[in-house]
Amino acid sequence: MQERRLVRFLDDIKDKASAVYLLGDIFDFWYEWRYVVPKGYTRLLGKISELTDNGVEVHFFTGNHDIWAYHYFESECGMIIHREPTTIELYDKVFFLAHGDGLGDPSKNFKLIRYIFHNRTCQWMFNTIHPRWSMWFGLTWAKQSRKKRKDGMEPPYMGEDNEHLVLYTKEYMQSHPDIDFFIYGHRHIELDLMLSQKTRMLILGDWITQFTYAVFDGEHLFMENYIEGESNP
């Protein structure tokens, strides 16, 4: 259901958007081999390809569920892949865009898992496992990760003094005062926070239950909820 709804959203904006930024965790688990890619997602990838064929830039930020996107999205779908936080300028406004995993999180367990996921040797070893078993493992891991959370949901907003992405942003903006907007995914909560008279931070929610997104019209940045037949992205 979520995939079809996202496809309908992209279809709604295909003639309006000049660029689309997907901030990671678009898939529960994505891993691509040299000659094999995961089953499914054909509607989504086909719609993204339609956008890029029509000149719409689609930027894909790898998240902790889809780190292992290598060349397929670029060569087959025309997407621009970002593996690290990126700063861009749009209409005289400066944006810091990132998925958000690993930014400000002090957890040693999380850092260890992230290191393993990003390690080239570990990726090569995983690559030697037949997709029948490695995809099962990855999808099962993602499912179990959600089950560990209460009601399968992310913890609610923890406040400015405890939210890792907020703490990271406050520290980063001290040495980068030119940035107007910090925008993240990862946390699966919706947050719109003014950190100074100039600097605003957004966490975009998700497309599992919230169907939220941000739109920049060249002057103003809005947080929106996609309601089919009513939204004007």
Q: In short, what is this structure?
A:
By secondary structure, the protein is of the alpha/beta class.
- Number of DSSP helices? 7
Count of extended strands: 10
Helix content class: 25-40%
Mean pLDDT, to the nearest integer, reads 89
Low-confidence stretches: none
Radius of gyration: 18 Å
SSE series: HEHEHEEEHHHHEEEEE
Inertia-based shape: globular
Main sheet summary: 5 strands, mixed
Give the terminus-to-terminus CA distance: 20 Å
Q: What would you say this structure looks like, in words?
A:
The chain is an alpha/beta fold. The chain has seven helices and ten strands. It has helices at residues 2-13, 42-53, 72-77, 108-118, 120-127, 131-147, 164-175, and strands at 19-22, 57-61, 80-82, 86-90, 93-98, 181-184, 190-194, 200-204, 212-216, 221-225.
Detail the topology: elements first, then pairings.
Layout: H1 2-13, E1 19-22, H2 42-53, E2 57-61, H3 72-77, E3 80-82, E4 86-90, E5 93-98, H4 108-118, H5 120-127, H6 131-147, H7 164-175, E6 181-184, E7 190-194, E8 200-204, E9 212-216, E10 221-225
Parallel strand pairs: 1-2, 2-3, 5-6, 6-8
Antiparallel strand pairs: 4-5, 7-8, 9-10
Helix pairs in contact: 1-2
What key phrases describe this protein's structure?
233 residues, alpha/beta, five-stranded mixed beta sheet, three-stranded parallel beta sheet, 7 helices
